[in-house]
Request: fold
Amino acid sequence: MRTIEWDKEKEAVKFIDQTLLPREYKIKECKRVDELIDAIQSLKVRGAPALGVAGAFGVVLACITETTKEAVKTQVARLEKARPTAVNLAYGVNRAFNAAKHGETTAEMKMYALAEANQIAEEDIAVNKKIGEYGSELLDDGDVVLTHCNAGRLACVDWGTALGVIRTAIANGKRIEVISCETRPLNQGSRLTTWELLQDKIPVTLITDSMSATVMRAGKVDKVLVGADRVVKEGVLNKIGTYMHAVVANAHNIPFYVAAPLSSFDIKSSYKEVAIEERSPDELIFLGKEQIAPLDVNVYNPAFDFTPFELIEAVITEKGVVRDVMDFEYKL
Ligand code: MRU
Reply:
């Protein structure tokens, strides 16, 4: 199935529980906003575009469970803030809520919100296919592409942004291999990127995050390609570790690309204005149930970092490849 979709019969949002992968493939469903917020915060559903769709379906849930417009609005405000960094969450929530406002009753609001949420989900796939077409032109037959975190179909409704570019290039007859960084501390690279690439029989090699400099210096990487949680006026916010790979790629003259839909763009904002999610110290103190650090150690655990445009060769969007920062406003 798609990573996330609406179940018409059950009136529920259904998604692949990403905390269980790769051990177990399980579909989870939520009928209440509280459950969905918990799923978002625990990363059962994750990745910027998937968060946008989750937020939009969350508005539908609010219209079903609440009896007044005011109560729906309260739930919408909670949903929008469930995670702060990926702008897609607010984008999806606001689009669905603005559509819902056309309704008089909560039943009518639900109808409008659902139509919009389904539309956002469909657009996500079409947009990723476009990103794939533009981005695949940048890849050469035989390329080894290093990626970080998971910007694949699991981070979207389907196809993926960065991994969608790789899928399209392969569909166009190019031989591409992937190096996936494990992406500590939650291991989206080792758990999710490797899993979904292996499902598609795309060759992938797993490395730890700290090995990227060594593999780049050894000439084992032709391009670096990642997704984005938010594109701001000076650069890109993405999973913690992205900046490190960009610095290393630049030091070795390896092109560093970002694939991102326009729904991830917040070009009027500065990175300084964006809240970087800080996650629980437990993510570093424990590995699963095993304690791997002293319980009372001081922990710093930001989930995202900022990479300036100076380090980015190009951003691949559904409207084309943007190489010049000054071009961004024009493309939008
Ligand atoms: O914390 P996550 O797993 O939601 O972080 C996801 C990422 O950082 C992805 O790289 C980003 O959302 C791009 S997804 C196409």
Observations:
- The chain has eleven helices and 15 strands.
